[in-house]
Design the sequence.
């Protein structure tokens, strides 16, 4: 137990260091000391060093901090949902994306962009809201179909249905983008994912989501442990597999939907972070669920840092970076084990 | 000896006729250009009676030459412009990124003017029109004001309105001289930095699209005595990050986005942009984006408008030539 606490503390300190790094580095470099001053100035109203310009404050506090934290939270949420979906579906390649959340969200956002729909109350949240609704509808369709096919909702049925529905929504997305070439650029940008331009209100919403989500899902750690033995074993241990499965899938779809709708679809973190966490911290979900949040967060933060600095002033889509860093890392990890 | 004299005489005659030949093709007003502005060889018909204009800037130039009634079809962008009302009603319209080649050929125009934008996809979207023997004259986006003037002269020469083209260019030159003189009177210490915003950034599309080195827009800013904060970037149309904009701290922000409602206010109230001088001093101005974004004589009007925004005291007595 003590060993676990050390590991947890190390992970949290490492996360904070990486966040500080992400906030400091950019087109304008800002030293950790200045960074700390600006943060304490904003939080506690302390005096600012006169050498710190108003532009530095804007860049750190309004532009970079919400972005860096948003990236961390998104990575964390995706990783936790990845852990849960992989355990529930007993498939190491599954994630909430397998269930069609991302393609549904992309389709929802595309419909709003192309139709130039505007809802005055939602304002800047219109696109995220559209993505969220699109993602949820897709998952609902997958679950309803899966249940129709077999009452126990076996994992193969869910994965198969998820694939079929995802492919169908992707085809509709392609159809829409061909029909409206003037929006094609925007649609592509959205489907690649980015944390660019996000502000504190986005970060706030995602922070609340992450906190609630991680606490709830960690609460399911016993069921998750049992489910990973298989449906039959779970039944014999007194867990109603189909009910628990449905709940867990809906919760992770909701969480993924919320994160995807702010940032667009960003792959790979949901796939890798769970495996890395299990590799370092064993299989017990009591640790794996919360720790995968931090590992996913770090992975996403570093990816976003690379996305905006590697080819500066050009910015890479963060989804490309997660795959670029993630794929070789995954292969290395896999071969090391064998 | 005799032979030598004959040689000299022959070569003299030859060179004279050659000179005469050159003079003839260059001086005559009816001569048509042998190449379009992209350098492709073209054969322009002697008489141009029907024109398809697939570039908003060319459409406007043709109208100002008094040739609006010869235009038989336009691109869909031209149709949105303010000058579209001076065209014949219900002209056929084609998408300039994906023009309907068959329909253009069916109109059998004498010439089709196109913009470089149509070729930005990497393929020749007018291939079938050219194959049908129609003269397609491409005008790539000019990189400088003198490039714009040459484009106008080129259009004039193609349609047999070189005199009109010269008039337009002379008016431009006159205004440019006035603007230059005014800008020269502004002390270097008082010169401001400027950011051009093509479309107002939002949280979903936060990049700031602007004009960099080698654009006529950058030249316009220099002309009126402003320093473009993206003027040292080697891309023509770079996307700046918000961080870049805040750290470069422009004194003036010119907004060329006529499609975002309340664009100036959106920039003035944008979170994180409070520290920018232009925002603090309220120096954020909306210009007629259609005038500035279309590379033709309208650019000079835009230059005057920008000059008046940035240095109202210096530019208030500079009037447009036309």
Sequence:
């Amino acid at each position: 137990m003590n060993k676990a606490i050390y590991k947890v503390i190390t992970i949290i300190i490492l996360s904070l260091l990486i966040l500080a790094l992400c906030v400091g580095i950019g087109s304008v470099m800002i030293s950790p000391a200045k960074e700390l001053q600006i943060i304490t100035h904003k939080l506690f109203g302390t005096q600012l060093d006169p050498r710190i310009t108003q532009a530095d404050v804007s860049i750190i506090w309004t532009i970079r901090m919400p972005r860096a934290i948003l990236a961390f939270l998104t990575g964390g949420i995706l990783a936790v949902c990845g852990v849960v979906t992989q355990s529930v579906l007993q498939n190491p390649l599954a994630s909430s994306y397998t269930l069609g959340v991302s393609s549904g969200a992309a389709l929802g956002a595309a419909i709003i962009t192309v139709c130039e729909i505007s809802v005055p109350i939602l304002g800047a949240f219109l696109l995220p809201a559209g993505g969220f609704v699109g993602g949820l509808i897709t998952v609902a369709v997958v679950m309803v179909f899966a249940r129709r096919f077999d009452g126990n909702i076996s994992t193969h049925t869910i994965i198969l249905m998820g694939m079929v529905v995802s492919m169908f929504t992707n085809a509709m997305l392609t159809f829409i983008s061909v029909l409206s070439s003037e929006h094609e650029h925007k649609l592509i940008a959205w489907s690649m994912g980015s944390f660019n331009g996000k502000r504190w209100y986005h970060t706030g919403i995602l922070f609340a989501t992450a906190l609630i989500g991680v606490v709830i899902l960690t609460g399911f750690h016993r069921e998750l442990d049992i489910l990973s033995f298989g449906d039959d074993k779970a039944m014999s241990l007194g867990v109603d597999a189909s009910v628990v499965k449905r709940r867990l899938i809906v919760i992770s779809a909701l969480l993924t939907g919320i994160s995807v709708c702010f940032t667009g679809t960003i792959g790979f973190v949901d796939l890798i972070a769970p495996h890395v966490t299990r590799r370092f911290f064993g299989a017990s979900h009591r640790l794996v669920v919360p720790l995968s949040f931090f590992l996913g967060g770090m992975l996403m933060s570093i990816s976003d840092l690379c996305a905006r600095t590697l080819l500066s002033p050009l910015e890479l889509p963060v989804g490309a970076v997660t795959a670029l860093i993630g794929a070789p890392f995954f292969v290395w990890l896999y071969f090391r084990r064998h | 000896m005799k032979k030598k004299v004959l040689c000299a005489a022959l070569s003299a005659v030859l060179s004279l006729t050659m000179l005469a030949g050159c003079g003839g093709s260059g001086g005559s007003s009816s001569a048509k250009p042998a190449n379009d502005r992209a350098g492709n060889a073209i054969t322009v018909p002697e008489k141009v009676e029907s024109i398809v204009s697939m570039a908003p800037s060319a459409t406007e130039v043709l109208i100002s030459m008094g040739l609006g009634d010869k235009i038989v079809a336009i691109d869909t962008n031209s149709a949105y412009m303010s000058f579209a009302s001076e065209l014949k009603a219900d002209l056929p319209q084609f998408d300039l990124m994906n023009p309907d080649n068959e329909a253009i050929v069916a109109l059998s125009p004498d010439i089709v003017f196109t913009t470089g934008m149509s070729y930005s996809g990497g393929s020749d979207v007018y291939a079938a029109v050219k194959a049908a023997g129609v003269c397609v004259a491409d005008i790539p986006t000019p990189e400088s004001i003198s490039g714009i003037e040459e484009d106008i002269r080129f259009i004039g020469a193609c349609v047999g309105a070189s005199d009109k083209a010269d008039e337009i260019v002379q008016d431009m030159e006159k205004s440019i001289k006035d603007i230059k003189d005014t800008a020269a009177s502004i002390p270097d210490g008082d010169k401001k930095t400027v950011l051009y915003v093509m479309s107002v950034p939002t949280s979903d599309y936060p990049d700031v699209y602007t004009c960099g080195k080698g654009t006529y827009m950058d030249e316009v800013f220099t002309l009126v005595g402003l320093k473009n904060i993206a003027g040292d970037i080697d891309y023509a149309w770079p996307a700046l990050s918000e961080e870049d904009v805040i750290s470069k701290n422009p004194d003036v922000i010119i907004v060329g986005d006529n499609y975002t409602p309340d664009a100036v206010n959106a920039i003035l109230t944008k979170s994180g942009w409070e520290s920018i001088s232009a925002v603090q001093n309220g120096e954020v101005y909306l210009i007629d984006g259609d005038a500035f974004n279309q590379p033709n004589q309208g650019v000079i009007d835009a230059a005057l408008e920008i000059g008046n925004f940035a240095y109202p005291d210096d530019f208030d007595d500079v009037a447009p030539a036309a």
Notes: The interface with chain A takes residues 97-98, 201-207, 233, 238-244, 246-247, 249, 271-276 of chain B (CB under 8 Å). DSSP finds 14 helices and eleven strands in chain B.
